[in-house]
Amino acid sequence: MLMFGDEFNIIRHFPEYFLDYRETLDPTIRWTDRLQSSSGEWSGNICDFYFRVYNKITKDIKIPFKTKGGDRIDDTPVHEALREALANCLINTDFYGVRGVVILKEPDKLIFQNPGYIRTGKAQMRMGGESDPRNKALMKMFNLINIGERAGSGVPNIFNVWKDEGWIEPVIEERFDPDRTILSLEFKKKQAIKTSDKKQAIKNKR
């Protein structure tokens, strides 16, 4: 029902169910784009939300020109990481929790928010190696279309991709009462540390 049903029937079983995508690319406009499960303009289910939002959050990702067997490769590690982040957000949502799923897109930042605490713990989530999805049936359905893994390697992979790109390290935040998990991804390069600053830091340690 969550994956392929319609919002009208979903909220009969999950009264707090709500999916929300907000795009703020122009500071003079409150939202440059918004997609809500309760709008009545589409099904409101998780499958449709995933693909609609994925297309929105990846439309500005640069794709280097690469070919394989004569065909253009339109996928990158960043695309894979964003698929993982979005799927993880939905798979680990407590659909009985309040405030719903919220995906925020800013000019240089993406924020994934979902109700529910981190079942493996924040440190283990970052380290990876253990998988304890809140909604196992959803994970299985995403796995069937080659999205997500059961090895608990999704979040570490996101961190590795961001490191390879030289971007600011992702931030995982966990809030309680109500429980909420927040993953922030910035598309900004880390500022290089000047040699003089390094020397000063060494002096300060001494």
Radius of gyration: 19 Å
The beta-strand count equals 8
Q: Whole-number average pLDDT?
A: 88
- Into which percent range does the helicity of residues fall? 25-40%
The largest pleated sheet is described as: 6 strands, mixed
Question: Which consecutive residue ranges, at least 5 long each, have pLDDT under 50?
Answer: none
The number of helices is: 7
Distance between the termini: 62 Å
Instruction: Note the run of SSEs as H and E.
Output: HEEHEEHEEHHHEEH
Q: What is the spatial order of strands in the main beta sheet?
A: 2-1-5-6-8-7
Structural class: alpha+beta
Task: Tell me the β content.
Answer: 15-25%
Shape summary: globular
Quick structural gist:
This protein is of the alpha+beta class and 206 residues long. The protein contains seven helices and eight strands, in the order αββαββαββαααββα.
Descriptive notes:
The protein has helices at 7-13, 46-58, 77-91, 122-127, 136-144, 154-165, 195-205, and strands spanning 19-23, 33-36, 67-68, 71-72, 101-106, 109-115, 171-175, 180-186. With 206 residues, it is of the alpha+beta class. A hairpin with a 4-residue loop joins strand 7 (171-175) and strand 8. 25% of the residues are buried. The mean pLDDT is 88.
Which terms would index this structure?
globular, 7 helices, 206 residues, 6-stranded mixed beta sheet, 18% strand, single chain, 8 strands, alpha+beta, two-stranded antiparallel sheet
